[in-house]
Amino acid sequence: MAAPKRGRSASAQSKPWRSLALILIAIVALTGGMFASGHNTPRLGIDLAGGTSITLQAVAQPGEESSINKTNMDTAVDIMNRRVNGLGVSEAEVQTQGSKNIIVNIPKGTNSEEAKQQVGTTAKLYFRPVLATEASTGAATASPSPSASGSASSSPSSSASSKATASSSKTGSATPSATATSQGRAASDALKADATSSASPSASASATPSATSSAAASAAAAKLEAQYTALDCSKKSVQNTAGKNARAEDATVACGQVSGVWYKYVLGPAAVDGTDVKKAAAVLNTTTAAGWQVTMDFTGKGGDKFAKVTGELAKNTAPQNEFGIVLDGQVVSSPSVSSSITGGSAEISGSFSQEEAQSLANMLSYGALPLTFKVANMTTVTAALGGEQLHAGLIAGAIGLALVVIYLLIFYRGLSVIAIPSLLVSAILTYVIMALLGPGIGFALNLPAVCGAIVAIGITADSFIVFFERIRDEIREGRSLRPSVERAWPRARRTILVSDFVSFLAAAVLFIVTVGKVQGFAFTLGLTTVLDVVVVFLFTKPLMTILARRKFFADGHKWSGIDPKALGAKPPLRRTRRPAGSAAGPVDPKEA
User: What is the pLDDT of residue 367?
Assistant: First the structure.
C-alpha cells in the first residue's frame, strides 16, 4: 500500500508548474487586453483627476410649489446617483446643496453633455392617443401601416410576425397645400370631437353644469387648435419645449421626429403612465433591420391599461389609430395598431444608436424624477487633491511595501525570494484589473481606493507569513523540508481562506451600507482580497514546492530561513532495533 501513496504524492508534487503556467497565461492575457483596449492606466476619480461639476436647480410647476421638499429632493438624489453611478464605483458624486439645488460631480473622462442628460432628464413617459399629426413644414402625413398586435414597435416598415408589431411608418412625399388644409380641418374636427367626448355629462347631470362644461371644453379645444396651427417643430427651440409641461390629464401638442422629418402632433390625455413600465432594456434586434430597440415590460395594471387603449385605438382610422409614446414632452414614437396589444410587453424602435437605446432604457428603468430640474451651472473643475496628494499617497504605499520587504528579509531570509515575487504578481494583477475595470464598469481610482490597495499589502504579506510559519512548525517537529511543505499547506490553506473570507465579508458589507468614496475603498479591498487567494494558491504554494527541491533550501542553509538548528528542531525519532530472540518489555538491571 505504501508504493501507491508515494506515487500519488510524487504526482501531486509534479503539478506546481501547471499552476505557475496558468497564472502566467492569465497575466499575459489581461495585460494584452489592457493594451488592446487603449486604457493603460486606471481611470482616476474626481479628487485626483478633476472632472465636471453640474448644479441642478429644482423648478416647481405652477400650483405645485410645495412639491420641492426634502423627501422629493432625497428621492431625486437617489435616482440620479443610480443613473450615473449604477455600480457604485465610477466615483460620481451626487448630493444636495440647500433646499433646491443638487450638485453632481463627474470624474474626468465622462461626456459632460451625456451626463447632464442622464442626471437632469425627468423621464416623464406617457402613452397618449394621437388626435392629429402632420409634417411641420405644412405637408400632411401619409397613413401609417397597421399590423398585428402583440408587442408595440415603431420601426418604419415592420411586418407581421409571431411577435407582431405595430408600425409608425411615415412614408410618402409632401402633399399639396390643399391636402394640408384638409388635414388641418381634420385636426380641427378631431379636437372638437375629443372636447365633446371629454365634456359629456352623465345621464343624471343637470343641464346648466353640462352647458358650462361643454363651453369650457370647446374653448380649450379652440386654444389647442390655435397652438397646433402655430406650432413649427422644425425650430430647435420648439422641439424640446412643446408639450413638456403638459399635465397627464390634459390634451396637448408635441413634436416628434421620424426618419429625419419633424412632425407636430395633437395628443389626447395620457392613457398609460411611465410608472406602469416595470422594466426597460436596450436590445439589438438581429432578426430584422430594426437595429437597437428598447423593450418594456408593463406592470399588471399597466398591461391592462395598455391593452385597453390599443383596443380602443384599433377601432379608429389613421391617424387616430396611433398612440404617441411621449418622453419629456417629445414624441419618440407613434405606432399604429390594428388590434388590442396584450401580453404586457412592448418595444420602442426608431433608428436608435446603441448609446441612445441604452440611455433611454436607463432612464426608464431608474424611474422618473419627482421634480423638474434645470441646469443652473456646469463647470470643469480641477483635481480637489491634485497630483501632489496622489504623489504623497504613492510614496506612503512605497514606504509600506519597503517595510514589508525589510521585515521579510530579516525574519524569513531566503523565503523572501518567494514572498517578494508573490507581492509583485499581486501588484501586477491589481493594476491591470483596475485599468480594465475603468472602461468596463466605470471604476475610478480615488484616494480611498489607493488606501485600500495599500492595506491589501498587509493582507497579502500575512498570508505568506501564515504559510511560512506552518512550514517552520513542521521542521521543528523533526521533518525534512519537502514533507513539511506538503503537511503545512492544508493547515495554512484553511487559515488563509478563513482570514480572507472575513476580510472580503467586511469589504462587502462596507460596500453595501456606504456611498460615495468609501465604496471605492471597500471595492478595492474586496478585489485585492480575492487576488490574494489567487496568488497564494497559484503562485506562492507552487513556487515553494519547486524551491523545496533545491539544495539551498532542502539542506536548511543558514540563510534559507528554515535552518533546523536555528529553529530549534527536534532530532528525528529513530527506533532501536532489538536483538533477535530478546524478550519483549523492559529488562531489570538487577536481574541482568
Answer: 59
pLDDT of residue 33: 87
How far, in whole angstroms, is CA 54 from its chain's centroid? 21
Instruction: Please list the residues that pair with 128 across neighbouring strands.
Output: 324
pLDDT at residue 496 in the model: 92
Burial of 109 (0-12, 13-18, 19+ CB in 10 A): middle
- Report the distance separating Cα 85 and Cα 106, nearest Å: 9
Helix (H) and strand (E) counts for the chain? 18, 15
Q: Is 403 left (phi over 0), alpha (psi -120 to 50) or beta?
A: alpha
Q: For residue 211, what pLDDT is reported? A: 57
Give dist(CA 31, CA 393) in Å, integer: 24
Give the Cα separation of 369 and 46 in Å (integer). 25
Half-sphere exposure of 501 (CA within 13 A, CB side): 6
Please state, in angstroms and rounded to a whole number, the distance separating the CA atoms of residues 320 and 314: 9
Q: Cβ(45)–Cβ(445) under 8 Å? A: yes
Full-model pTM: 0.54
Contact 371, 58 (CB under 8 A): yes
- The stretches in the chain having pLDDT less than 70 are 1-14, 83, 85-91, 109-118, 120-123, 137-213, 288-290, 349-350, 359, 362-368, 383-387, 515-516, 570-592
User: Cell numbers 381634420 correspond to what residue?
Assistant: 186
Strand partners, 165: 151
What is the rounded distance in angstroms from the CA atom of residue 116 to the CA atom of residue 51?
Answer: 13
The pLDDT value given to residue 150: 43
In the block, cell 501632489 appears at 388
Residue 237 to residues 24, 60, 118, 231, 563, Cα–Cα distance (Å): 58, 21, 20, 11, 83
Burial class (CB in 10 A: 0-12, 13-18, 19+), 80: buried
Phi, psi angle pair for 350, to nearest 5°: 175, 55
pLDDT digits (tens, 9 = 90+) for 266-305: 999 988 887 788 878 888 877 766 678 888 888 888 888 8
pLDDT tens, residue by residue, 551-577: 888 887 888 878 788 777 766 644 445
Give pLDDT, residue 535.
92
In one letter, which amino acid is 423? L
Q: Name the pairing type of β-strands 345-352 and 372-381.
A: unpaired
Contacts 24+ apart (CB under 8 A), 462-465: 462/499, 463/496, 463/499, 463/500, 463/532, 463/536, 463/540, 464/408, 464/415, 464/418, 464/419, 464/422, 464/536, 464/540, 465/412
Smallest CA-to-CA distance from 213 within 194, 192, 198, 224 is with: 198
Rounded distance, CA 408 to CA 181, Å?
90
d(CA 233, CA 75): 33
Contact 292, 356 (CB under 8 A): yes
3-state class (DSSP) for residue 94: strand
Q: What is the pLDDT of residues 498-523, one digit of tens each?
A: 999 999 999 999 888 876 677 888 88
Answer for the pair 92, 105: CB distance below 8 angstroms, yes or no: yes
Closest CA to 419 of 550, 561, 525: 561
Output the CA torsion 174→176→178→184 (10° steps): 10
